[in-house]
Amino acid sequence: MFIRPLRRLLTRPTAVSHFHTFPPCLSSRKILQNFKLADIGEGITECEVIKWNVKELGAIQSFDPLCEVQSDKASVEITSPFDGIVKEILVKEGEVAKVGQGLCVIEVDEELSDSASAEQLEPASSAAAAPSPVIPNSKFVEDAVSRAEQIREEPSAPRRLHPMDPNYLPSSTPDVNRENVLAKPSVRHHARQSKVDLALLSGSGRDGRIEKKDIDAFLSQQASSVSVDLSSVAPRAQTEQDVIVELGRTRYGMWKAMTQSLEVPHFGYSTSLDLTSLHSLLPTLNSHIPEHFDPSKSSSLPINPSALHPAPSPPPVPESAQFTRLTYLPILIKTLAKAMMAWPVLRSSITPGSINGGGKPTLTIRPHADIAVALSTPTGLYTPVIPHADTHSIYSLSSQLKHLSFLGRQVPCALTMNEMPKRGATVTISNIGAIGDGEYAHPVLVPGGGVAIVAIGRARWVWDVSKSDRGERRLKVGVSWSADHRVLEGAELAAFVESWRAYVEAPERLIGEGI
Known about the structure:
Radius of gyration: 34 Å
Distance between the termini: 108 Å
Strand content: 15-25%
Oligomer: single chain
Number of strands: 19
Shape: globular
Number of helices: 13
């Protein structure tokens, strides 16, 4: 009874036994994964792909830089979470990708794809993931075994360690090339157009960042090194041609916001405020700026006020928030915040299409006055927010304005989500009088920018005959309002401005109300 099974065992082909001795690497399953753009920050819905660090059909390892994307505020380098081969690039350089959209298709091992994040990966197609059938013939088995022996003999490339790995050692000789140089995407584009190697330049910006002026200086230096007879050179015709300039991320965001502003029905209201009383009060306020806002006014008292018990110390103020002189703007913001506390509709924000309200839009009334300030910076227009402006003193508001102006002047802009929260403000103020000589304007209100915006013009001394026949010399400033007519009625806006006027033209009320 044992003869027949023994005969089958002896006559079994030897290739079958070799087939079951494959190493695991030969039986690993290759699948295609769609690598998606993840959420890289609050309020960011799309990013522009600036540069790809890998080409199609190129191999990539874990933590290798995959591509570089730029949002409205910053550029971010995206790294690969696994080893694999880039089969297809879905979003080319210069194109915009939405959050959750696929960036590229990568061929990975099935074991590696199981450990990757499900939010960034998804199977590219079921057909691509299907394994090919195995033909168990002797020639195929012998070839596979020989390939396996070669793989065991060849040393594999060491895997790149993550910078947070305890065994990670930074390179002592940094790789100096044009990709490791700090520069904005627009500056890199300008360098490519001018055929300038960024690795040859030294940046004059913050942290050694290369600016456009550094490239222009390098080009002018090269031009001056070559002596050219200008009299024999014909005038260049290129100087008379049109130049096409692409919009930057910030200016393109402003373009989209202004386009959306056409959806808001505007109601305009203009008037003038009398600043004569504030003008008389300003020298007194300037002479009593607290020491932590103006360290130059430190005074030593003959008697120590903390002899019995330590007096409360004021909060630390950074150097960028210190000032030596008050202006009218922080006083106008303080009086505006006082008036907003009496008018809840000016402290409201619109929530369109609320489900709780049966599909109708709703208004959210905030407990404090959140005021945004329009800020013109070298990189574009921003509207940082001063939250709870009604709780600040006039000196504190002046310090906030000084600090926001300092952040906006940095290149690139140093304003972050802390200064520009996603919820924004309910009223925006624009001090156009600090730049031009105009008195009135027509500010534009964008969706999500609150319920009203006011532009303050240049203050002027005028001869006012409205209160007496003889007249008197008064300091007046023009203010121009634009409100969302879906929320505010014309009479409500006019009455609110009169409430603001009562504080501005009689600043003594702030003392009576405890400021």
